[in-house]
Amino acid sequence: MLSMALYKREMKGSFKLLIIFGAVISMYVSIIISMYDPEMMATLDSFYEVMPELMASVGMSTGATSLIGFMVSYLYGFILLIFPMVFCILRGNGLIAKYADKGSMVTLLAAPVKRRTVAITQMSVLISGILLLILFTTGLEAIIAETSFPGELVMPELLKLNASLLCLHLFIGSICFLASSIFSDTKYSIALGAGIPALMYILQMLANAGEKAEAIKYVTFFTLFDANGIAANESSAVFGTLALLIGAIALYTIGTAVFCRKDLHI
Amino acid sequence: MSVINVRNLTRDYGAGKGIFDVSIQVKKGEVFGFLGPNGAGKTTTIRHLMGFIKPKAGDCQIGGLDCWKHRDEIQKRLGYIPGEISFFDDMSGKEFLKFVSDYRNAGKDNRIQEMLERFELDPKGKMKKMSKGMKQKIGIVAAFMHDPDILILDEPTSGLDPLMQNRFIELIAEEKKRGKTILLSSHMFEEVERTCDRIGIIRNGKTVTVDSVETLRERHMHTYTVHLDSPELAECFARDFDGICDGNAVTVAAKQSLETIFMSYYGGEGNA
After folding, report:
1. Is B261:B211 a contact under the CB 8 Å cutoff?
2. Are A108 and B103 an interchain contact pair (Cβ–Cβ within 8 Å)?
3. Which residues does chain A have within 8 Å of residue B90's beta carbon, measured at their own beta carbons?
4. CB of A104 within 8 Å of any CB in chain B?
5. pLDDT band per the 50, 70, 90 thresholds, residue B117
6. Least CB-CB distance to B87: which of A4, A104, A112?
7. How far apart are CA A214 and CA A226, in angstroms?
8. Per the CB < 8 Å rule, is B80 touching A110?
9. B102 contacts on A by Cβ (under 8 Å)
10. Whole-angstrom Cα distance, residue B26 to residue B44?
């Protein structure tokens, strides 16, 4: 099912990116959580009054009273969406399309290893990376929140929130993986794998920003990730998460099937 | 029984490109030369054999197994040198060979060390910095490390210096003695005529002829015996023109270029 030799090599390849993204996320998470402070909240709310569209477009809204609400507003609208997404894009493209483009796919296929195994291994590498990033973020959030504001953060809420975030990124990863499997040319693989999530995010920003543009939210998958709803235990938010998870499984499966069937001019 | 069996394989890329109705058979223990100019369809045929692309028409089998459906099964006993070498640039040669042997499950009892010594290769440097010849040597080591029964070699000596080309030809001769089945593609007649039993010529995607080396050589190599004034002159002449000296007489062979050979098969419409 899995080629350990390839998995090890690819995880080594993910390592540097994981360190960089881990560091960036650490910085933002620690700064933002430490900013949780009623007085500071007033300042941020005043920003919101001055430029509500801009603040809302990056998912920051006013009225976050609890720590988790504060984190949802200031971390789950931009930072924790964008950085793991960029990781998915970079890694997703490198796992299959780059090999096919450069011709080094020959090494992987001129061996008694099924294409299915190659695809599933590469998929596992991507999923492992996403999982590590989200687990790291969760641990970090819990530690920083507990040390700065003991007892303020409700752990089950955080876990639910990050489980939903994980599903979102698994879905984004599956788009990148599918693009990587379809195209043997990194140009197109990146165009699709990076283009779709980026476009969706921009649409999400537009939908957040204006009332007239709110209808746009029905065309972007980011709407399925409803951080406030998850924290508040709303069933529609749970369904959204499930939809993302099912979508991810479907796209990973299709990606693998496409890779197994396609002609490789390598 | 033939180990490699390509039957009426067709793959049309449009604009006259591709391969059309290609059939070749390679018997067990035979070295088969697959000869053709650049862009003739050698690599396309080999890609089918490797299971990289699915035949549009016709079929190909190795060891009785379909090359597309059972590609991973076939790979267990197959060694392959790709026509265009592209490995993992981020690795050193040593790391790469270690990776390939792990990936293939080649085990400790592999031929890496033997091959490295044979081709005087030190694989320590980064692959990115390696010369074409060094990468080619790495490719040779990777193809032979698991001691496969069947070898598919796509222009295996490109980038190698003449000394190493000779070493490679010696290697092929040894492997042949050990009963290996070898398909060797090349665009150089000299290379295949030194190693192969039979030769198949492909041009513009069509197999032109399949013949034994002797037949082709007889048909396309003309030998002349020249008589010179003195044995000394004869010796000089033999040295300069690569002939065989016998007293005053020198026998020289005129080899035709591959292109000329093709022309003789195609006649006037050689470029059609």
Report:
1. no
2. yes
3. 13
4. yes
5. very high
6. A104
7. 15
8. yes
9. 4-5
10. 17
Does the distance separating the beta carbons of B88 and A104 come in below 8 Å? yes
| Nearest chain A alpha carbon to B101 | A5
Question: Which helix (H) or strand (E) segment is B237 a member of?
Answer: helix B231-241
Long-range CB pairs of B110-114 (<8 Å, 24+ gap) are B110/B145, B110/B146, B110/B147, B111/B144, B111/B145, B111/B146, B111/B147, B112/B141, B112/B145
Q: How far is A84 from chain B (nearest CA, A)?
A: 24
Partner residue facing A114 (CB), from B72, B99, B105: B72
**CB contact A103 to B (< 8 Å):** yes
| pLDDT given for residue A62 in this prediction | 55
> What pLDDT, on the 0 to 100 scale, is given for residue A25?
96
Residues A179-235 have pLDDT tens digits of: 999 999 999 999 999 999 999 999 998 888 877 778 888 889 999 999 888 888 889
DSSP string, B141-193: HHHHTT--SEEEEESTTTT--HHHHHHHHHHHHHHHHTT-EEEEEES-HHHHH
d(CA B197, CA B30): 7
Distance from CA of B165 to the nearest CA of A (A): 23
Among the partner-chain residues B47, B52, B103, the one whose CB lies closest to the CB of A3 is: B103
Short-list A80, A40, A89, CA closest to A197: A89
pLDDT tens digit string along B28-77?
A: 999 999 988 888 899 999 999 999 999 999 999 999 999 999 999 999 99
- Residue B147, Ramachandran bin (φ over 0: left; ψ between -120 and 50: alpha; else beta): left
CB of A191 less than 8 A from some CB of B: no
pLDDT in tens, B162-217: 999 999 999 999 999 999 999 999 887 778 878 899 989 888 888 888 888 888 77
d(CA B210, CA A76): 68
Distances (CA, A) of B164 to B9, B119, B160, B168, B170: 34, 7, 6, 6, 10
What is the spatial distance between Cα B78 and Cα A115, in angstroms, rounded to a whole number?
A: 16
Q: Which two tokens stand for residue A129?
A: 């990376």
Q: Are A112 and A46 in contact (CB under 8 A)?
A: no
Three-state DSSP class for A39? helix
Let me know: does B172 contact B150? Beta carbons within 8 Å: no
How far away is chain A from the Cα of B105, in angstroms, using its nearest Cα?
9
Q: How many CB atoms lie within 10 A of CB A64?
A: 19
**In angstroms, rounded to a whole number, what is the distance separating the alpha carbons of residues B142 and B136?**
10
- A106–B51 CB contact, under 8 Å: no
What confidence score (pLDDT) does residue B14 get?
84
Cβ of A102 and B86 within 8 Å?
yes
Please state the pTM of the whole predicted model: 0.88
Is the complex ipTM more than 0.90?
no
